[in-house]
Amino acid sequence: MKTQIKHIHGRRIWDSRGRPTVEVDVLLQDGSSGRGVAPAGASRGSREALELRDGGSLLNGLDVAQAVTHVNSEIAQALIGRDALAQEQADACLIALDSTPLKSRLGANATIATSVAIAQAAANSQGQALWQYLSQGQPVRLPLPQIQIFGGGAHAGRRVDIQDFLVMPIGAQSFDEALVMVANVYHAAGQWMASLGKRHGVADEGGWWPDFSSNEEALQTLTRSIELAGYRHDQVAIALDVAASEFGQSGRYTLGLDQHVYSTDEWLQELLRWVNTYPIVSVEDPFAEDDTAGMQAFTHAVGQKIQVIGDDYLVTRVDLIEAAVRDKACNAVLLKPNQVGTLSETRQAMQTARQHGFGMVVSARSGETEDTAIAHIATGWDTGQLKVGSFARSERMAKWNECLRIEESLGNNSVYAGKHGLKLAL
Questions:
Q1: Do the beta carbons of residue 414 and residue 142 sit within 8 Å?
Q2: Are 203 and 131 in contact (CB under 8 A)?
Q3: What residues act catalytically?
């Protein structure tokens, strides 16, 4: 069979933070090949699949020699001879081979890199781009981007508590125009911050590394930057990734900038005030992953008018998405393939979200590489939204630029999701 897997090879490469990660090449009998790379997050949910790191003193314990060895031994032995076109069967083999709930034996970094490499090889064997192969002939749209302007939380030395202050070009008519709008806002924000003496480089994902006196000052500055770039709030709106699990636990939220400890209800009131004051259309992880009551209260209060995303709260897992549907704890899901460890499990999470009317945002991680697979995943599965990081640093721009290439390849058939990519079309 021409699409049988002939060879699998894993290696250690380096991510955008200069840390080791796993890359896998898959070769098929017909000569087609594919490559997959595992990203790594800084802000991570406790229930997501686990990377395998070596520990010890070398590279601060972050080396991936064991994970690479698993790829080149057990994983290769189990998958060679299988049909690359049978993605679900190959991924099921990886899941069974690992046999732990969170991929802790082989490492989710080993399994996701292998899984994506198989899909890439399969697409190439069919003479298709990955997005085209994943779409299975269904209509696709270029995703509405969420693009970080200010980095905070674990991505920026906790200069601000909120992890990501992002913009969404909801008024653009094409992906190309969307990036032009974001570029104008990004540079306006940088110039405005520099004039105030509040710009201190860039954060992990390329957003400006700020020096604000409060979290709300970041919101005020971002709102002002949109206006300085010449846009109305119905053209460019704000999204927040609160990443509340980073500073909240057991119903208590300790914010360093505000020098205040909030209860769940107090933090709810603060978030609601922000939503009612600023042009916010999407909020991710507003409460900690252990605070279902907080998630429910926030979604009940604003879920009819803005998107409420579960990331650490859902970690791309079908069972947690289904529980959130029952609990009415959010109305959208962040999809991160390395959170579950295989492409098939990510697709199952996407299908579950779509079945229940949830919004869907395919997302990169803070530790990234030049790999562009998620641009194809967001387009091919028509998730409507893509979150990659900021508008700087090549590991981020590689994804945005790949979307431009996809849009160009579609020609007159290209469709940009725009505001309709949101859970709630504005």
A1: yes
A2: no
A3: 205, 336
If one counts every other C-beta atom within 10 angstroms of the C-beta of residue 194, the result is 12
* pTM: predicted TM-score of the whole model, two decimal places: 0.96
Residue 102 phi, psi (nearest 5): -120, 25
More reliable by pLDDT, 407 or 214: 407
Distance CA 312, CA 113 (A): 21
Model confidence over 312-331: pLDDT tens digits? 999 999 999 999 999 999 99
Give the β-pairing of 248-249 and 5-14: unpaired
Say whether 38 sits in a helix, a strand or coil. Answer: coil
Structure-token pair, residue 29: 């009998």
Spell out the residues 6+ positions from residue 176 whose beta carbon is closer than 8 angstroms to its own. Answer: 404, 407
The 3-state DSSP class for residue 372 equals coil
> Could you give the CA distance from residue 334 to residue 105 in angstroms, rounded to a whole number?
25
Look up tokens 């069972």; give the residue.
319
Q: In sequence order, which residues have a C-beta less than 8 Å from that of residue 260 and are 6 or more positions away?
A: none
Where residue 158 falls among pLDDT bands split at 50, 70, 90? low
* Plot region of 136 (φ>0 → left; ψ -120 to 50 → alpha; else → beta): left
Kindly report, residue by residue over 183-211, the tens digit of the pLDDT. 999 999 999 888 888 777 788 889 988 78
